[in-house]
Prior knowledge:
Among the domains are: about 40-140, Macroglobulin (MG2) domain (Immunoglobulin-like); about 150-235, Immunoglobulin-like (Sandwich); about 250-330, Immunoglobulins (Immunoglobulin-like), CATH 2.60.40.10; about 550-590, no CATH class. Helices cover about 10% and strands about 40% of the residues. It contains five helices and 35 strands. Strand 14 and strand 15 (about 235-245) form a beta hairpin. The radius of gyration is 29 Å and the shape is globular.
Amino acid sequence: MKTLYSLLLLIFICIFNNADAQVNNISSKADAFHNILPIEKLYLTFDKPYYSVGDTLWFKSFLLDGNLKANTRSDKIYVELFSDSLKFIENRVIALNNGLGYGDFALTNKLKEGTYVIRAYSNWQQNFGSDYFFQKSFYIGNAGEKTWLVDAHQKLNTIGKKTLDLKVRITNLKNEAAGLKDVEIVLMNDKKRLMKADLQTSLQGTIETQIPLGDNKINGNYSFIITDKKDRTRQSVLPISLQEVDQVDLQFMPEGGHMVNGIFGKVAYKAIGADGLGKDISGKIVNSKNEIQAELNASHKGMGSFYLLPTKGETFTAVYSLNGKEQKQILPLAKEEGITMRIDQLSKSDSLYVYLKASEGKKLDGYQLLAQATGETVLTVNLNLINGFSTLKLPKQGFPDGIIHFTLFSPDGNPINERQVFINRKLKINLKIAADKESYKTRDSVSLEITATKEDGSPASGSFSIAVTDDGQVKQNEEEGNIMSYFLLQSDLKGNIENPSWYFKNETPSTLLALDHLLLTQGWVGYNWDEVLKKIPEVKFKAEKGNEINGRLTNLLNNPVPNINLTLMSLGKTIFVTDTISNTDGYFKFKELPFI
């Protein structure tokens, strides 16, 4: 990849023959760090988005390296099941073959209805912390002939009198509408009942109503209890999250890391409610004379951007409306001097542009630009600023798909600007599924032909998954997240991303702009430059090859017990017995154990 990039860059920029050794030092240290601690990415697919008690939860795991190739470093992963209060329930150790694994959890009758969490990781991933673990929440409901399936949508209104707009559709497990049913709807906050209403479903099983909430403060997790008034054993509990937005955390993030007085630049922002979710706001940026400098219009999930020219001695304030009340927040001060970095990857489909601008008096030569993809260096450039400016045009085909992290280093090797961009070269696989019949009888066998092709129509090889569910009973949330959004986006960003698959639904300018705002405002999961440049990384958790158990045998005084025969037995569904001997320091190891 680096060789290809060197050839492409000759078209656009001059690589100096007398390049400072500093850039090689930074690049070599970054590469050395990555070689010692290469990244693993883990994703699990499931057969359904939610389950009933008594179901079996099936999953398939994909462990890839930073280049999104099958990982061969680790031979097993750990998959854990927790309740919503993070109480451990059970776990699985999954054997991997070329990065792929399979497993299941039997959701027994001991489980209560509610939200559960699955967490998965390899032993190697523990070197990077829980930000790199795979985690997913899902709901387990009660099953039975009297079970109702409830599809609900709610909207909280807080301007004027507080109300909750509620729209539900109720069906049974056969997807038959619960029409003309007298029901009781109760809104609960923990054990406190906030309201109760007696309603009737339409012939199509729907209810549309507006519920007054009085003066109750609405913040946190709630639940609707919907009960059939004629048969009170038929009941559904619907957990929801409601947040009365009386304040937001409005954060401003200048592109590249900071504003500099006298330099026109982009400032991104994100408005976050107390529930941690983005809140769309509108308003304006004014200076100390109350003159409008920019508009606040969030593009998606409370995120947006504007351009601003900061000047010495001037302050800027964001003025916006929230629940009919005017709110104000002062923007962070700009630096007196420095360098700004702006990257435009939206104007051209085949190229991105890097713009550097220095304030007067700044040193103009000896800078280095480094680009990384999942910790691996994909570009290093020595550059000088001419008349305080530098512009680079870089072809996108030289970058891998996903998040590219750009860092500008000063002549003395310190990072001074950082920026993330997303590259999507549309290298997708097209899947076609053809059935042997148009319709089937009960218990008929179904034959499917699945064809996978690349963009040019040539055959594509790979590992694929297919799940068969009743479309009337299992509703997929297409914006929730999938294997593409996880590997290309979620695994490289800190924190929660709302509806991550939404950013991949189309290639419209508004969607691409919203994705760019996400990268400007969301924290990057990556290396700390102080650790990369000044420390040799410590490997605390080894990649596990095969399946083995290690330990140490000691006496009551904690002294090693050498040369002792130890026996390991498994008396579960599969009976297994093996033995080993502790060494002179008391350590022992059971090797090549089966996955049972």
